[in-house]
Specification:
By secondary structure, this protein is mainly alpha-helical. 76% of the residues lie in helices and 0% in strands. It has a domain of 149 residues. It is built from eight helices and no strands. The chain starts with a helix and ends with a helix.
């Protein structure tokens, strides 16, 4: 059971990492409320669990090959981040009036739970940094506890439950803050987070192109 608490320590550390999934988690909680944010958190949790499962099964070898074999994966991840960023940047704030004494109640079209879960899942799993993080964690725990040891599963159970708990706490805090926000603040929040997502995507995509150019020139030099 002590290994479970070791995993909690890693989960708390991961809670302070800043990335695209964190921005979307907070933005969704601010814009759509606690329940929507929790569904995003669930999607992130499921993608983390899926990536971790593949790494534990030995599929991490696919993602630890030479850099030129990972370029297309990084470019795809960058494109996904840019698409989410543009969509977030251009979306409009939806503010429900506190009272509506005249006429029927106003209903806003709200996406279903699966939309939020898939959004969190796709956004997280398309980030190569998530893969490399879990690959590193699996390699480290295999070295520390021994490959196939039950301690590894206790360790990662602690890590995953902690990340889900901390993400849920972030949603709760963001939802409480949202009560004090007006439409202008929400619009600017969307713009900032959209630009950050686009920035993450551009950095990821451009770094892949630069690495591809270096590899191409290296091999070209040998052939010439």
């Amino acid at each position: 059971m002590v290994y479970y608490f070791h995993g909690i320590a890693l989960g708390i550390t991961l809670a302070f990492l800043i990335g695209p999934a964190l921005f979307v988690l907070l933005q969704t909680s601010l814009h759509r409320g606690l329940k929507a944010g929790l569904f995003i958190a669930l999607g992130i949790f499921l993608s983390d669990a899926g990536v971790l499962g593949l790494c534990l099964a030995g599929s991490s070898r696919i993602f630890t090959q030479e850099l030129n074999q990972n370029i297309y994966f990084k470019i795809l991840g960058g494109m996904v981040l840019i698409v989410f960023g543009v969509w977030t940047l251009t979306r409009r704030a939806e503010v429900v009036p506190e009272t509506n004494e005249e006429g029927p109640p106003i209903k806003l079209k709200v996406p279903g739970p699966m939309v939020y879960i898939l959004k969190g899942f796709i956004l997280n799993i398309s980030n190569p940094g998530v893969w490399f993080l879990w690959i590193t964690a699996v390699v480290s725990t295999n070295s520390a506890y021994g490959a196939g040891s039950s301690a590894i599963y206790y360790f990662f159970a602690g890590t995953l439950t902690t990340t889900l708990a901390t993400d849920s706490l972030k949603c709760f805090i963001a939802d409480k803050i949202s009560n004090k926000l007006n439409s202008n603040i929400i619009i600017w929040t969307n713009r900032v987070i959209g630009l950050l997502l686009i920035g993450f995507g551009l950095v990821l995509g451009l770094s892949s192109i630069v690495n591809f150019g270096n590899i191409f020139s290296t091999y070209g030099g040998f052939k010439g």
